[in-house]
Amino acid sequence: MRAQFVLSEIGVGLRRNLTMTFAVVISVALSLALFGGSLLMRDQVSSMKGYWYDKVQVSIFLCNKADAEADANCARGAVTTQQKAQIKNDLDKLSIVEHVYYESSDQAYKHYKEQFKDSPLAASLTPDQMQESYRIKLKDPEKYKVIDTAFSGRTGVQSVEDQRDVLENLFDLLGGMNVAALGVMGLMLIVALLLIVNTVRVSAFSRRREIGIMRLVGASGFYIQAPFIMEAAIAGLIGAGFAIALLVGGKYFLVDSWLAEQIPLVNFIGWDVVIAKLPLVLAIGLLMPGLAAFVALRKYLKV
């Protein structure tokens, strides 16, 4: 009988405050979707770092004739065969080096033509203008400074570059986007909590006569609060369901069906990572509104 009464009160409350309940559902859905999306983006960035950092190389660019006239590092002229052999020998002695790849000026010219074939500059370049280089695969990418210290400024070396510098800019951008998403999520979460509190207050005020009667007949505080708490929890649960639908839809339509085809070089996170986050989104959607309603009732109803 008591359970039937509580359920009937929940139905009455949801119908009386349909507009505000809808606003709560939308706010919770958007905030939880942003929360889940932020968690997934963090995992994506971590996955990309692990994938790309394992493949980055340190490049030692060697001086050519054109550099001898334009670059102070190459003031002593183009690299000689003896200097190249010495650089290669010194690289082979380093324990942090996993493999050394040599790229000739002809190979560099070919690769440039393949990558930038539509560039107007490609037509004016010649192989002798391209730099020879050593591409070093390190056992630990964090040891780049060892290569930089050992070979920067050496005769015949134009520059030492770490590909991680390029990747760091990308990861910083993704990290900034993640922080922005978390900021918007926090704002939406505050809006959702305010809506939940206001909805509970309006619902309690509209049923103040019933509450008064329940007090007179000796109903417990929890028995009076239960319908309001469950109303908020149900609204939050529906919002969490929409958030889950947005996350699953984003993974399927945006990531798998579009981004994966447009950016094949990126190793996107799998469904196992997405599914692992869904119970957390569902739990927060259920508990957060219920706790907010509980606090609001204790403060405003004094039951």
Overview of the structural elements:
This protein has helices at residues 2-16, 18-53, 65-70, 81-93, 105-115, 120-124, 144-151, 164-206, 208-216, 221-262, 271-300, and strands spanning 58-62, 97-103, 133-138, 157-162. The chain has 303 residues and is of the alpha+beta class. It has a four-stranded antiparallel beta sheet with strand order 2-3-1-4. Helix 2 (18-53) runs antiparallel to helix 11, helix 8 runs antiparallel to helix 10 (221-262) and helix 8 (164-206) packs parallel to helix 11 (271-300). 26% of the residues are buried. Its main location: membrane.
For this entry, give a set of tags:
single chain; about 300 residues; alpha+beta; 11 helices; 4 strands
Strand content: 5-15%
Total of DSSP H or I helical runs spanning 4+ residues: 11
Gross morphology:
rod-shaped
Computed Rg: 31 Å
According to DSSP, the number of beta strands is: 4
Low-confidence stretches: none
The overall average pLDDT, rounded, is 79
Could you state the order of secondary-structure elements as H and E?
HHEHHEHHEHEHHHH
Share in helix: over 70%
Strand order of the largest sheet: 2-3-1-4
- Sketch the major β-sheet: 4 strands, antiparallel
Q: Give the N-to-C terminal Cα separation.
A: 22 Å
Class from secondary-structure proportions? alpha+beta
Family: Belongs to the ABC-4 integral membrane protein family. FtsX subfamily.
Keywords: Cell cycle, Cell division, Cell membrane, Membrane, Transmembrane, Transmembrane helix
Pfam families: FtsX, FtsX_ECD
Domain FtsX extracellular: 56-160
